[in-house]
């Protein structure tokens, strides 16, 4: 998993290196940093002890809620910040957070929200309508190139204050799906983030929200600590006095932290499949959730022969996905039958499904005039992705494509992409379910004329791409749910056929926790943990 940093035309707002590479905590964080922090559970016994969680992703990506797709920081932001509405982490059903109620008519083109009386930011300042307007102005500002903007600008015209604690959202057209997206606009204090340099501080870890927990320490590449916010008066109060989230990318180390005779944590995400039986035999609950999480291939269409659809399709047909699921994923996944996972309400088998077909792969390569192809597969070093790479190499070698695997740290891979360095094919992990379940959102996460990912693929100017983007816009505006679903499925068919950025397998994400200590935990189908309903036993 990685951070998405900019979304819009023109050059990126900052390089990926600025966002995620080797950053120290900003000076603005000194007030909340407690110095070198133990990465073990340092709390005392009883209910006041520290909840320690192990997160299998880095905490050194962007912490700006309007920009980030970091698994770690997005999960943390759900505890530190609030939207007008937030969503249940599993069902994704919206509920009032800073707002006092959902709109009476979700299909209206104006939504009015009153803010919760007494809501305060972590520095004690009251939350006002001006803070909400400030946040949405940032999200919708085309010059800011925010990631969140891609989920709002097509349907949300603007937000205005109509009192100190009341705001109105003006929509371009009826869009009931937008209610669940309001959780992606985490309300940020204007007096903090309007200061010069404050957005850079946010990237590096400054977090000031109105959520049930406040950030008490942040140490990139090590841990982030939280404490219950005494001024919180919202619907999901903190159940733990303090929390310490460790960033542990190495799979074996994560398992060791949550197991053993003296475990150092009570919960861990991104559990490797090979460790399930061991953890369960030790008394832990290990639960999975299936969703959009996937290994995808992304092609540089500006580099021959990957500009040829036949070559891209051939490399997908060549992969023995059933073997990948059984060997690398230990049965915890499915070969992709669509851009959408099979549990998505809009899923149907795509018009093009890449079953394992080496003969067809060879025929497509011959038809494209491709012989003696050498491919360097640049890949992120997420543990389960690395487990899948040998199957890709063996499959491609078997159809005459000499393959070199080049796994690297996620930051290094995307630094190269942000710097527009040359590449052939990238293998990485993606999970748009972090943002929501609706198919329109999921498509727009990866596909769009000014999308970051389309910049990586160099495909946005292709005539097929332009027709796809126009079809997506028509689907967004369609009010009839059945017609909208059909229109989106037709867009998914184009994405499948073109195979520019496309999943190979969708896999199950596993979470492990100690049921003798914790209750109220639910596995979620995207990275990270949500502990807003968990508590000590």
Automatic annotation (TrEMBL):
It holds the Pfam family SBP_bac_5. GO terms for molecular function: peptide transmembrane transporter activity. Coiled coil: none annotated. It is found in: Cell envelope. Keywords: Signal, Transport. Gene3D superfamilies: Dipeptide-binding Protein, Domain 1, Dipeptide-binding Protein, Domain 3, Periplasmic binding protein-like II. Belongs to the bacterial solute-binding protein 5 family. This is ABC transporter substrate-binding protein. It comes from Streptomyces griseoviridis.
């Amino acid at each position: 998993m990685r951070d998405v940093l900019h979304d819009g035309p023109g050059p990126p707002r900052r390089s990926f290196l600025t966002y995620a590479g080797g950053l120290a905590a900003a000076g603005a964080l000194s007030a909340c940093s407690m110095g070198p922090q133990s990465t073990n559970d340092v709390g005392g016994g009883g209910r006041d002890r520290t909840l320690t969680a192990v997160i299998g992703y880095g905490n050194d990506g962007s912490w700006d809620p309007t920009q980030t797709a970091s698994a770690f920081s997005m999960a943390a932001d759900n505890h530190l910040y609030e939207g007008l509405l937030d969503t249940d982490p599993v069902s994704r059903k919206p509920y009032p957070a800073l707002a006092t109620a959902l709109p009476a008519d979700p299909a209206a083109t104006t939504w009015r929200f009153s803010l919760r009386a007494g809501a305060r930011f972590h520095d004690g300042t009251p939350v006002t309508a001006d803070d909400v307007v400030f946040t949405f102005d940032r999200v919708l500002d085309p010059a800011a190139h925010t990631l969140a903007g891609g989920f709002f600008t097509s349907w949300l015209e603007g937000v205005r204050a109509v009192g100190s604690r009341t705001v109105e959202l003006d929509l371009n057209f009826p869009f009931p799906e937008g209610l669940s997206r309001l959780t992606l606009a985490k309300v940020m204090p204007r007096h903090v983030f309007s200061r010069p340099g404050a957005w850079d501080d946010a990237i590096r870890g400054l977090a000031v929200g109105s959520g049930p927990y406040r950030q008490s320490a942040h140490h990139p590449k090590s841990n982030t600590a939280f404490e219950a916010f005494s001024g919180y008066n919202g619907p999901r109060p903190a159940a733990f006095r303090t929390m310490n989230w460790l960033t542990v990318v190495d799979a074996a180390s994560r398992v060791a932290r949550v197991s053993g005779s003296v475990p150092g944590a009570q919960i861990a995400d991104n559990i490797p499949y090979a460790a399930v039986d061991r953890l369960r035999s030790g008394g832990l609950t290990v639960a999975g959730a299936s969703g959009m999480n996937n290994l995808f291939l992304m092609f540089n269409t500006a580099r021959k022969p990957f500009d040829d659809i036949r070559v891209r399709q051939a490399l997908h047909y060549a992969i023995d996905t059933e073997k990948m699921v059984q060997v690398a994923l230990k049965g915890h996944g499915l070969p992709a039958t669509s851009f959408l996972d099979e549990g998505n309400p809009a899923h149907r088998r795509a018009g093009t499904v890449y079953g394992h077909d080496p003969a067809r792969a060879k025929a497509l390569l011959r038809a494209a005039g491709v012989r003696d192809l050498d491919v360097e597969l640049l890949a992120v070093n997420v543990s389960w992705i690395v487990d899948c790479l040998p199957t890709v190499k063996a499959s491609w070698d078997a159809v005459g494509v000499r393959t070199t695997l080049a796994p690297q740290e996620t930051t290094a891979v995307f630094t190269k992409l942000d710097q527009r360095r040359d590449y052939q094919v990238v293998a990485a992990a993606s999970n748009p379910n972090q943002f929501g379940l609706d198919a329109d959102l999921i498509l727009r996460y990866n596909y769009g004329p000014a999308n970051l990912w389309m910049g990586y693929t160099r495909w946005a100017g292709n005539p097929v791409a332009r027709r796809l983007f126009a079809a997506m816009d028509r689907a967004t505006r369609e009010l009839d749910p059945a017609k909208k679903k059909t229109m989106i499925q037709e867009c998914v068919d184009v994405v499948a056929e073109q195979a520019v950025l496309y999943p190979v397998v969708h896999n199950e994400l596993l979470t492990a926790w100690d049921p003798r200590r914790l209750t109220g935990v639910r596995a979620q189908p995207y990275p990270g943990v949500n502990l807003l309903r968990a508590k000590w036993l």
